[in-house]
Amino acid sequence: MTTQRGDGAGTDGVDWDERAATFDEEPDHGLRDPRVRAAWAARLRDWLPGRSGDVLDIGCGTGSLSLLAAEQGHRVTGVDRSPAMVALARQKLAGPHAVFLTGDAARPPVDGERYDAVLVRHVLWTLPEPDRVLRRWRDLLRPGGRLVLVEGVWGTVSPVGIPADRLTALLAPLTARMRVERLSGDPALWGREVDDERYAVVALRD
């Protein structure tokens, strides 16, 4: 998750260019632990199309999920506002089936391209007007394509994030076909036990 303003500072006040060098040290960012990597690979295999397709990874960070999607046979385009993150993603996943672009998550610079899946992890909650952003992301899908949104609510004193019921309400005008998958109970995804709300929503475009 590296949603930012143009000056390099995130909407949450974090300078993601500065943090790029250590971003992958978090277990669910770098996926360096084989068990964490396998857990995310299994989830992506279920969430993304079963056949090879075009996947847009919005807020791709250093490209860890992009790499898993490519290993499963998909052609990947990653977008991130942080040039430092994009540079690391390009190092991680160089080749003809992966393209990484610097740009705004709310308005991905993809020049009218359409995708079989739009994958977004821990980004939507940072963006203003999430209803408009979701509509824009939906419009990037081909008919039958899917939005894969991994979100949650973090912290107890001053929680941040977006609850699953709010996200599904925002998606309801866009699709009648969606499912919510609870992720808090799978410590392999996070490299530790968690007790906050973490989930994925897979929503299909008609």
TrEMBL record:
One of its GO terms (biological process) is methylation. InterPro entries: Methyltransf_11, SAM-dependent_MTases_sf. Residues 1-31 are annotated as: Disordered. GO terms for molecular function: methyltransferase activity. The keyword Transferase applies. The keyword Methyltransferase applies. Signal peptide: none annotated. Keywords: Methyltransferase, Transferase. It comes from the Bacteria. Residues 56-149 form the Methyltransferase type domain. Residues 16-31 have a biased composition (Basic and acidic residues). This is Class I SAM-dependent methyltransferase.
